[in-house]
Amino acid sequence: MSRPEYTAPPEIFYNAEEARKYTSNTRMIQIQRELTERCLELLALPEDTPGFLLDIGCGSGLSGETISDHGHHWVGFDISGDMLEVAAERECGGDLIHQDMGQGVPFQPGSFDGVISVSALQWLCNQDKSSHNPIKRLKHFFTTLYGAMAHGARAVFQFYPDSPEQQMQLVTQQAMKCGFTGGIVIDYPNSTRAKKIFLCLFAGVVGSVPAGKSDMMRDTASQSTVAYTRADRRRQARRKKRAGVKSREWMMKKKESRRKKYGENSVKRDSKFSGRKRPTRF
Amino acid sequence: MRMKLLTHNLLRSRVKGAAKGYPLAIHATTVETKEADFNPTFIVRMLDRIQWPVVVQAASQVGVSEDKVPQTVPNDPESDQEFLKAAHHLLLEIEVIEGELECPDTGRAFPIKRGIPNMLLNEDEV
């Protein structure tokens, strides 16, 4: 079967007829379901807390239904109006938006707990219009996506790269340039049919916020700090301001050291006049 | 399914030249109310992400009477059931079916048809 990406741009390929076929075919439904399940597994969202997810390329809402089954709320966007119509008819549970992923993710910063996308990313690598530049579109997509995700959220894209080496590399590279970390996960790499490719991206550090210190920890904390050392004290003493050169104090010190070295008569005896300040003269 | 005020609250325009593209003004012609399951945990979670003043503004734009809209978020929303119920109604039960969204920076209008806002841009607007 030739790849649909070669036939026509997505908004034209997924016309009313194709959209209807897509949603009435039980095999398609089954595959989409399984892929979405796997994507959600890779997202690793905390159990029992309802999250707010974004479904990129939601199409007729097959993937969205699975998300709803897991108890999450979702918003989806797709470039094909006909697919969205089908989704709206089927009451799949999420909000739908008509948008092209290459034109950026139209959401406020930190909106989503997770992002999934089933069989959509490969469309972004194609140049369907003369004004399209796949690399620029990918970059714009990933930068805006990064912004729309909550800190530490994950994005999982299941996709069918056309040339495993080049396209996979292109997509991953662009994502990394936009600040994502993560990489490619391949399920069943040795099987031609069951092989599935997922791009897992992490926005920011993945992990929970460290807990604040409790009173219990205070006692041990004070013990673990190093007490003042002798070197510290020496350093501090040195930091004390030295006497200014040619001041009375400095002079007396000099005289004292000379006296010690060469005897009492080597320097003039101290008087009230030694080291006094002299009047300024022209 | 249809555009809820929660989605509106997070939506922004990506038109070239729109610095913020937020908040989008709603010019609604058809608005429906549909019941949804009340989930207080979800509402509390989302309260950190949404802009409450925008909800208040949007509510007046879709014609919700002012006495049903809490003007501010209480200090302790988790325990304020009344507020959570009101927030749930505003965010998840009001749906805009037909109308337009307007970008505040550029004035670009995005049509909403059958509850689906069309955010697609022309070539020269990207």
UniProtKB/TrEMBL annotation, chain A:
Residues 54-128 form the Methyltransferase domain. Residues 201-279 form the 18S rRNA (guanine(1575)-N(7))-methyltransferase Bud23 C-terminal domain. Residues 232-245 have a biased composition (Basic residues). It comes from the Eukaryota. Keywords: Cytoplasm, Methyltransferase, Nucleus, S-adenosyl-L-methionine, Transferase. GO terms for cellular component: cytoplasm; nucleolus. GO terms for biological process: rRNA (guanine-N7)-methylation. Residues 262-273 have a biased composition (Basic and acidic residues). One of its GO terms (molecular function) is rRNA (guanine) methyltransferase activity. The keyword S-adenosyl-L-methionine applies. Residues 215-282 are annotated as: Disordered. It is found in: Cytoplasm; Nucleus. CDD domains: AdoMet_MTases. Belongs to the class I-like SAM-binding methyltransferase superfamily. BUD23/WBSCR22 family. PANTHER family: 18S RRNA (GUANINE-N(7))-METHYLTRANSFERASE-RELATED, METHYLTRANSFERASE-RELATED. This is Methyltransferase WBSCR22. It comes from Salpingoeca rosetta (strain ATCC 50818 / BSB-021).
Automatic annotation (TrEMBL), chain B:
It comes from the Eukaryota. GO terms for biological process: rRNA (guanine-N7)-methylation; tRNA methylation. One of its GO terms (molecular function) is protein heterodimerization activity. InterPro entries: Trm112, Trm112-like. It holds the Pfam family Trm112p. CDD domains: Trm112-like. Belongs to the TRM112 family. This is tRNA methyltransferase 112 homolog. It comes from Salpingoeca rosetta (strain ATCC 50818 / BSB-021). The lineage of its organism: Eukaryota, Choanoflagellata, Craspedida, Salpingoecidae, Salpingoeca.
